[in-house]
Design a protein that fits this description.
- By secondary structure, the protein is of the alpha/beta class.
- The protein has two domains: about 5-140, Rossmann fold; about 150-170 and about 205-265 and about 275-290, UDP-galactose 4-epimerase, domain 1.
- About 45% of the residues lie in helices and about 20% in strands.
- It has helices at about 10-20, 40-45, 60-65, 80-100, 115-135, 155-160, 175-190, 210-220, 230-240, 245-260, 270-275, 280-290; strands at about 5, 30-35, 50, 70-75, 105-110, 135-140, 145, 160-165, 170, 175, 195-200, 205, 225.
- The strands form four sheets. It has a seven-stranded parallel β-sheet with strand order 3-2-1-4-5-6-11, sandwiched between helices. The chain has a two-stranded parallel ribbon with strand order 7-10. A two-stranded parallel sheet has the order 8-13.
- The longest helix has 18 residues, at about 80-100.
- The radius of gyration is 20 Å and the shape is globular.
Length: about 290
């Protein structure tokens, strides 16, 4: 029997996709392709077939992708860009050899519209490879994860009363992994969607000034946003204990925000999930209610 196959199912996004998929199709129609099958024991207990598939072992991927009705190719974990592209190409070649009839790929939002280059270039290369493969494809261009900004570190802004970075008044578009997973499961469970490119972003973007206002409202303490230079922002992050690599990454995002390129919006996600995506305000309120 053909099955919907989900790669990277033990990852944060993959687990949520499987959860939403189970609400739409029987477990017997789902298989997961994972590098560590022991970590996928919970899926086996639910009646989902667990298959071994390693990005660095193309032969294992070809076996893992056998008898697929659809293949969800969740982009490989963070790695050096050329290595990521190579892994994606190997997976697409394996899918072609396995006769996969439809690939659903998680790309990066607005990748072809002056997007954040370190991520966009990897995903555009993969999108072109998918097109060259001739396999019918659906591209899900996921925007920034809301969890990158909504996490316990927000307490530090409340404690100090300020958010200091170089984003200026620029905006960014974020959505929760759960909303992205719901949209992905919807595409996998439904007929059609081949040849479509969906920009999975919120219909509203936000700025750090707005984030400061939300934190003020939720905490009852005044929080403000102060914009500084990239150099000062980087130095402040490092002094606060963030690793240099992460600090450079965050400053690069802030630089793109300040340039006005990270605030693009789209109705695609809302249409697929049938409701408004969880807002940044809702996510923060939920975090501090726990």
């Amino acid at each position: 029997m053909s099955k919907i196959i989900v790669t990277a199912a033990t990852g944060e996004l993959g687990k949520l996709v499987v959860k939403h998929l189970l609400a739409r199709v029987p477990a017997s129609e789902i298989a997961v392709s994972v590098r560590n099958t022991e970590k996928a024991a919970e899926f086996a207990e639910l009646g989902i077939e667990v298959r071994y598939g390693d990005w660095d072992d193309p032969a294992s991927l070809e076996q893992a992708f056998a008898d697929a009705s659809k293949l969800l190719l969740i982009s490989s974990p963070q790695d050096e860009s050329i290595s990521r592209v190579r892994k994606h190409v190997s997976a697409i070649e394996a899918a072609h050899k396995a006769g996969v009839p439809h690939i659903v790929y998680t790309s990066f939002a607005f990748a072809d519209v002056d997007a954040f280059a370190p991520l966009a270039n990897v995903h555009l290369a993969t999108e072109f490879t998918l097109k060259a493969s001739g396999i019918p494809t659906t591209i899900l261009r996921n925007t920034w994860y809301q969890e990158l900004y909504v996490n316990p570190s927000l307490q530090g802004y409340i404690d100090t009363g300020s958010i200091i970075n170089s984003a200026g008044t620029g905006k960014i578009n974020t959505v929760t992994r759960d909303d992205l997973a719901l949209a992905t499961a919807t595409v996998l469970a439904e007929e059609g969607h081949q040849g479509q490119v969906y920009e999975l972003a919120s219909s509203e973007s936000w700025s750090f000034e707005q984030l400061a206002d939300i934190l003020s409202h939720v905490s009852g303490k005044k929080v403000t946003h102060q914009s500084v230079s990239d150099a000062d922002s980087f130095q402040g992050m490092v002094q606060a204990g963030l690793p240099e690599g992460l600090s450079q990454f965050l400053v690069a995002i802030d630089r793109k925000m300040a340039a006005g390129t990270e605030g693009h919006t789209s109705p695609d996600l809302e249409k697929l999930i049938g409701k408004k995506p969880t807002s940044i305000h809702e996510s923060i309120a939920l975090l501090f209610s726990k």
